[in-house]
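Hi Q.,

Before the meeting this afternoon, I wanted you to have the 4'-deoxy-4'-aminopyridoxal-5'-phosphate prediction in hand. No need to reply - just skim if you have a minute. The sequence and ligand are here:
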Amino acid sequence: MSAIPADLPLRTDLVGEEPYGAPQLDVPVCLNVNENPYPLDQEVVEAICQRVRQVAPGLNRYPDREHEDLRRALAAYLKKESGTSLQPQQIWAANGSNEIMLQLFQAFGGPGRTALGCDPTYSMYPEYARDTFTDWELAHRLPDFSLDMDTTIERIKALRPAMVLVTSPNNPTGTPLPMDQLTRLLEACSKVPVAGADQSARPIVVVDEAYIEFRDPGTPSAVSLIGQYDHLAVSRTMSKAFAFAGARVGYLAASRGIVDAVRIVRMPYHLSALTQAAALAALEHTDLQLARVDQLRQTRRQTAEWLAGQKFHGRPLTVVPSASNFILFGIFPDRDAVFEAMKDEGVLIRAVGPQGYLRVCMGTGAEMDRFRQTLVHVLKRF
Ligand code: PMP
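Predicted structure with the ligand bound:
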């Protein structure tokens, strides 16, 4: 609980709010924040130390505000990972994709503007909206958690939002967004004037690809459409598949116009020289950083199958198909009780998303063994 005395002039809309975040608890098995569970390879650790040692004497100076080397390295990564060639001026990095998203809201949202999301989805989006005084609206997903295209497009036409946010794969459901649906959204948005903006302004479509490297091999990323759509912004991160959550590096891939808009609102020198050095070292070892992704996909397949074979009160569990490194499953009349019982037995998962569901992130083999044993044990008690 926050301890903010009433005589502090806190913004009225923030009164009673709590800081966002999953619990950070010291439990044996943490499967709650969708990290890559495997530590960095020693070769990458050495490379990071070397790069950091190189920049350390220069820490009396501010870092490269435009982080040009990092933007070049990220462009090279996207070329390799998604087959799309982008200019460094079409890339922008920040402290996690959380900061990328906030910068997008700062540049394109604001008072009198609306952002539209497709729920259930990532629970930070309404907070970016709140913090930038942007109205937050929702178009609900279908029962299988895919986008309800017709309703979403109707909502876009009615609300005339400045930003449309879609998450692929979606958190917490793991649902991927097919390219034909994204193209339909982009085409629809290109005909809708934004409320509260210049007459010629059209909504930007932000695709949050935090978990994209876990998609089925061979399926495209939204970055492949950037050349065709100037209003498409793709937010990505090194926190998940790339196994670099502790370094806090997210990035944006978009038209130069969108990147230049974000450059207006960024803090000067927002990305420290240490972060830039560490990220460059990790990007030089892309294959090692991504070495476990295949294995995590396999863990996801096995875990989904196993969960689908489990019963609760005589009925099989519902398991939502996932293209990510987590699985949403249920449905429990009291999911919080199941969550708490799992936690008490040392396995931290997440009570998030639609009523009755729990989300588990893929861990190491030993962690998943422990998850399975504990869930079986816990479900017997309810
Ligand atoms: N987008 C989604 C959908 C997420 O789930 C997360 C992290 N949970 C983020 C963005 C933010 O990740 P980061 O700031 O570490 O890049």
